[in-house]
Amino acid sequence: MTVLSLSFPTGYTLADEQSVDTAEAIVEENSEDEESIQIAPFIPTNEWQVVDDGQSIPPGLHVRINFETGVKEAKLLDPEDKGEADHVTTVDSSDDHRVTADVGVAKATFSDDSKAFKPTGDQRRVHHYGNSDRRGIINKKTKPFTQQELMEAVQKQGSSEEGPIQAITYSAPVRESDGYSDSMPHLHNVHRNPTDVEVMVELLGVLGDVRTHHPESLQALEELEYHVHQLDNARELNSVGGLVVLLRLLNASSDEVRGMAAQVLGSAVQSNPPVQTEVLGYGGLDLLWALVRSEGESESVKKRALFAVGALLRRNPVAQHTFLAVHHGFDVLARKFSGSSPQFQLRAVTLVTDLVSEEQERAATTQGVSPPISWASGWCGHVSSLIYWDSVLGIEKGLQAMVKLEPECDFTVHHNWLRILKDRFGGTGEEDEFVGDILKNCEKLLGTIQWTGEEMRELTIQMREQTIQMRELTIQMRDCHSDEETDNSDEGTDHSDEGTDNCGRPLA
After folding, report:
1. Cα–chain-centroid distance for residue 399?
2. Alpha carbon distance 304, 262 (integer Å)
3. What confidence tier does 166 reach under pLDDT thresholds 50, 70, 90?
4. Residues 10-64: pLDDT tens digits?
5. Model pLDDT for residues 103-144, shown as the tens digit of each residue
6. What is the CA radius of gyration of the chain?
7. What is the DSSP letter of 15?
8. Vertex 378: Cα angle to 376 and 382 (nearest 5)
9. Is residue 196 within 8 Å of 235, Cβ to Cβ?
10. 346: region left, alpha or beta (phi > 0 left; psi from -120 to 50 alpha)
11. CA angle at residue 312 from 309 to 316, to 5 degrees?
């Protein structure tokens, strides 16, 4: 005999509408699986005793079943147990020794000498779990209940005192900063967390829809960038048509959309050679470089397009060759440098530094010595200009570039300023890595500057001239401050056309 246990999850019932709080399951004999084995009869006492499988019991006993363990026990019905007649009912053994136990949520009717479940009335056919360790019964003939069906069942069971149970809705967890939830509500009605690829497909659907409004496109692009930072997600981007969608958006009418599309492409190809190859195959370098060199393009779009170009070039010799030989990229960047924004200049100098470093590494590996880099000499003045910025970040990036380009450039003219920078940052008392890098690069550059006798004489003359100019300026300022009396007769007189003296006062 197989001992069964009925257990029902919260809000689940097997009953019909007329009896929502009870369900009846009947277990009867399965003679096909039983062997003819003589089992000793059950002898009841006043103490609880376990009823073995297949063991028959006499009528008029107090029977209980543990629905967690499946153990069935019986004893003689004591006088004090009469009050439990509503919970335990015995049937004459001439019937089939059925025992009915009301367990509050479900009512199960068992046959004490049976194994098989037998439906009665309108009950559905249910089967055992099989030979597994799990206990209970399952319904294999009907599909699983949907969330809505389960919630309707829970609503029917809600008591009138506590009021109806509120429906539970599922919302897929997303970052707090997401903005595509309103445009893709079906993502929040699933019964599991969507995968990253599924989310990307939904986002690309928004971006590829011509009816999508400008704010929704930006929100979808921002969320897509978050996902493509992961290398595996970026590699799946092309398989779901994402690269084509992004490359088309580089021609969008909105500056913000064009810039954000370039930003997403840059994040996708960054340190990801397979995606770099795919974007190159689609002509992505040509499209991005057209945005960078366009005279009518906004600085914001240029800056983000340059970021994408840099991400496409780094550690990619094929792309670098195309950039230098076909587009003459660094020559064009050098011409655009002075009129660009500081952010654009920082990214340009950083890209120059990285590609020079890669070229030197490849040359050292193959030839043992780094040959001159033809295009780098045009950047000597641009990279050194950053060390005169008020921005510490600009100074750091400028020094890093100067160290890398030192074999191609002569930075002697910056000797005095390098010493000033060394003294300034060395006297801060700070010991963080940021300041340490600045000091280290200053010392490297100062150590590489070789002074010839002629250079020393020229520098001495320049320093003397500067000293004389400073003295003359000091005397002039002292004379201006000592003469503070003003002729009252000249008050209110307009001297705008008469010029001013060395102190800035109008001439008489």
Report:
1. 33
2. 6
3. very low
4. 333 333 333 333 333 333 444 444 444 567 788 889 888 988 887 888 887 888 8
5. 333 334 444 444 443 444 444 433 444 444 444 444 444 555
6. 43
7. -
8. 100
9. no
10. alpha
11. 135
Pairwise CA distance, residues 375 & 396, whole Å: 22
What is the rounded distance in angstroms from the CA atom of residue 368 to the CA atom of residue 361?
9
d(CA 426, CA 340): 32
Q: How far apart are CA 387 and CA 418, in angstroms?
A: 8
Alpha carbons 57 and 75: distance in angstroms, whole number: 10
- Percentages (nearest 5) of helix, strand, coil residues in the chain: 50, 5, 45
Query: Is residue 119 within 8 Å of 125, Cβ to Cβ?
Result: yes
Q: Show the DSSP H helices in 183-314 as ranges.
A: 196-208, 214-228, 231-237, 242-249, 255-269, 273-281, 284-293, 299-313
The single residue listed with the structure tokens 């890669």 is 358
Q: Phi and psi dihedrals of 12, rounded to 5?
A: -115, 135
What residues pair up with 111 in beta bridges, in sequence order? 98
**Is residue 180 a contact partner of residue 219, using CB atoms and an 8 Å limit?**
yes
**Token pair of 394 as six digits:** 């600009």
Please count the other Cβ atoms lying within 10 Å of the Cβ belonging to residue 206. 21
Going across the sheet that includes 98-102, the strands are 88-90, 98-102, 107-111, 26-28, 116-117
Q: What are phi and psi of 111, to 5 degrees?
A: -105, 130
pTM metric for this prediction: 0.55
How far apart CA 128 and CA 116 sit, in angstroms, is 9
Please, are residues 226 and 208 in contact by the beta-carbon 8 Å criterion? no
Closest CA to 344 of 395, 293, 286: 293
- Mean pLDDT highest for which of 89-103, 191-205, 298-312? 298-312
CB burial readout 45-73, b (16+ within 10 A) else e: eeeebebeebbebeeebbbbbebeeeebe
- Between strands 72-76 and 116-117, the pairing is unpaired
